[in-house]
Design goal:
By secondary structure, the protein is of the alpha+beta class. The chain is built from 9 helices and 9 strands. The structure holds zinc ion.
Length: 263
């Protein structure tokens, strides 16, 4: 097995649109025997036997087997040492949950994913996007401070006028947004709360359970108290962990979205 030597030049984290949180170790470039150049190592591809307490300036011995990197510190530097195997989201500090080995942030209000969550929520509930609405959403994201995707529903025509949106465009946007309310199906609602890893099959089963109750504020309030997921077994343990975590931490979002859509 060939062992490569490289020096750590930095660390960074990539926040993907699917909510995965992938940290990387940046290294001085190495070229393998196939001629591939590697200048960063995704932590998710480091083998369990690797050293995870790393520091900028460390000289590493790196070997690659079965698409996994075995990373060992050969000469440690004196820089501050960090645990690169992230257990919590660096932005919102929520514990990361692993699905198929990939770490995900389960916080639907995490600022690292705010833009994606807004588009996912609006698409799911049947919002009609066009040039005007897209321009306004981008202006809101760039010029206004919003904490959660739900804050969109609190925005008024006046708020939009203050960020240089014409009154007619502002009225059009607010009308598009609020005209959806009351027409959202349960399936759309579950897509809107954006549970990564929840299969269509599971969504369908969940909807069946929920249909016993009608869609009203009362049943939405009770939603997080339904005994999940024991009533509806998941196939993969990863999904189960993710789903429980989501259920536990995003209750407020689920209830608030339900109130907005169904009251
Ligand atoms: Zn987060």
């Amino acid at each position: 097995m060939e062992i490569y030597t490289a020096t750590i030049t930095g660390f960074y984290t990539q926040f993907s649109s699917d909510d995965s949180v992938v940290p990387f170790v940046q290294i001085t470039p190495i070229t393998d025997h196939n001629g591939f150049c590697v200048n960063q190592i995704p932590i998710v591809l480091m083998s369990d036997k690797s050293d995870f307490m790393l520091a900028i300036g460390d000289v590493l011995n790196i070997s690659v087997t079965k698409m996994k990197f075995l990373v060992k510190v050969a000469t440690p530097s004196f820089s501050e040492r960090v645990n690169v195997n992230l257990t919590h989201c660096p932005v919102c500090h929520r514990r990361l949950v692993r699905i198929n080995g990939m770490p995900f942030c389960t916080n639907v209000n995490c600022r690292a994913h705010l833009r994606e969550h807004i588009y996912t929520m609006l698409s799911a509930i049947g919002f009609r996007f066009d040039d005007t609405t897209n321009r306004i959403i981008e202006s809101i994201l760039n010029k206004m401070y919003i904490d959660t995707p739900l804050d969109l529903f609190k925005i008024t025509v006046n708020d939009l006028n203050s960020i240089d949106i014409s009154e007619s465009d502002a009225q059009y946007f607010i009308q598009c947004l609020h005209s959806i309310r009351g027409h959202v199906t349960l399936e759309q609602y579950f897509k809107a709360i954006n549970i990564v890893g929840m299969s269509q099959e599971y969504t369908a089963r969940l909807c069946n359970v929920m249909r016993g109750n009608c869609i009203d504020l009362d049943s939405i309030e009770k939603l997080p108290t339904i005994s999940m997921p024991s009533a509806l077994p998941f196939s993969a343990a990863d999904d189960l962990e993710y789903f429980s975590d989501y259920w536990l931490h995003n209750k407020d979002f689920m209830i608030q979205l339900g109130k907005i859509l169904y009251s």
